Structure formats: C-alpha cells, structure tokens
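Review this today:
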Amino acid sequence: MSTAPPAGPGQEGTEDAYEFEPLAEARNYRRAILKEFSPWLAGDVLEVGAGVGQFTAELAGCNPIRRLSVVEPDPGFCGQIREKCSGVEVIEGPVTAIEAQRAFDAVVAVNVLEHIEDDVGELRRYRTCLQARKGAVCLFVPAGPELYAPLDRQFGHYRRYSRGGLRDALASAGFSTVYLRYFNFPGYFLWWLEFCVFKQREFRARRVWLFDRLVFPAIHFIESRCIRPPKGQSLIAVAKAVGR
C-alpha cells in the first residue's frame, strides 16, 4: 500500500470517484446501519462528512432526533443536502467549523474516518462535541487492511481498519467502546475478488441494486440476530465519551 496521501473528501477528482449515484441503490444497506445506531440516536445529533446526504436522509427520518446538524467540506455537496433534506442544519467545512460551545448527544460518521490522515485527532474533535453530555460516537468504516485496493486509494482512503486498530484509536481519543462488530461477511470476499483481484475501479449500479435487494437482507438478518461474523467488509462501532 502506498504511503503517499490519497485524495480526500472535497479534493479535486473525488466527486467522480465517490460514485454516489450507484451507491444510492444501497437502500437496505443504509437502513441496516441506521438500525445498528438507532439506540444512541436521540436529542442533538451531528453527522460528519455527509457527502451528498444519502445517509442524512435516513437520519432525518429518525424520530428520536430532536435536531440534526451535518458538517460537510464540499460546497456542492452542501447544496445538494439543503435541497433534499429540509430542516437539517448544514455547516460547510470540517468538524472544526462547529462552534466550540456546541454540545451533541451523538456524532455519526459513516465512511469518513478512513479519509482522515490523523484519525485519532479527528476522534478527539468528536469527543469535544460529546463530552459535556457523555454522548456516543457512531462509526462505520471499511475493514481489513489486507483488502486495501486501488479503489480505496481512488476513494481517498488512508487505511482500512482492523478491529483492534479501531478499538485502540477510540481509546487513544478518550472513548470507551460499547460495541465493535464486523458487518457484511460475504462483502469481505466480494470486495477482495472484485477490487483486489480484478482491480475494478467503480461500483456498478445494477450489481449494487441486486446485492442490496436480493442478498443483503438475508445476510443482515443472520448477522444481527443469529451469529456475528468473524470478518466483514466493514466495521461498525459505538463508543461513549468518557471523562472531561
């Protein structure tokens, strides 16, 4: 894996690389992530790195959330969020654009932390937003350092996470992990085959639709109600801010 910094969110070329249009088809996938996070989503919630607002739209329909704010550095993406998610506070910039005195009950970051070179520093900024209320950070990140593929670099990923690596990063930032689980076991092997072996450089909308509608619901049912997978395409984590 190259150590040169990849392109990150909001940098030149990433709008095309993100492939937001095909990923819009992953509706069941996003709803499953929301369901995992839902016990901690109430009160004032901040979403970091909202992109074009695909997950924001799911959060906006979550009734226990009293006020939803999103922070996104790309001005074009901010405009799209404002158009599709009325009533959501949109803040243009990084998480440091949040006023120092603002306090939140939860911070949500879906496929964001891997884009940040100093991920522990980023997590500490989340903790600053949460510590007054001892709130929770809800994270979804790509798993498996061994799966780092050309597409990861194209997406601006500095890393993919091991479970221990993510747990250590959270602890270093002042969080106590509530749970940390792999997500989408078959996706681990599909990612390896398609993006590591065949080195595909894009998502295909038809394949995303087929997986999301026909395969993923059964996978998530098994993983969430029967047995937690030993590996996965992603990691999902919830951690509480501790101390002052």
Summary: The longest strand covers residues 175-183. DSSP finds ten helices and seven strands in the chain. Residues 205-225 form the longest helix (21 residues). The chain has one domain: 14-241.
